[in-house]
Recover the amino acids of this structure.
């Protein structure tokens, strides 16, 4: 799959180091290597949204929007947040705006 990153995701990733940073990079590589969403480890669809998924990576949650394009699949990583922020109202509203 092809991947892209939002500014928010990139900023959150840049603040991390060590084992969690390495784990997130591994998860991104897993997405790149996957042919389908079902092949992505620790990935779940957000039930109330059409094309938003989350990947559990240690103590973080990476949310991404899966856009199906004519030339292939594009996974856009939108947010990288802690579990406490993952499902709060503000974050869910931002994800709804990105849902296709």
């Amino acid at each position: 799959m092809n991947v892209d990153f939002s500014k928010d995701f990139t900023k959150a990733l840049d603040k991390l180091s060590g084992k969690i940073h390495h784990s997130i990079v591994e998860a991104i590589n897993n997405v790149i290597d996957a042919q389908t969403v079902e092949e992505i480890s620790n990935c779940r669809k957000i039930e109330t949204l059409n094309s938003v998924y989350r990947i559990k990576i240690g103590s973080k949650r990476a949310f991404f929007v899966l856009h199906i394009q004519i030339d292939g699949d594009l996974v856009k990583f939108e947010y990288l947040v802690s579990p406490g922020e993952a499902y709060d109202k503000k974050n869910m509203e931002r994800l709804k705006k990105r849902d296709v």
Observations:
- The first strand starts at residue 2 and ends at 5.
- The helical segments are 7-14, 18-33, 83-86, 89-98.
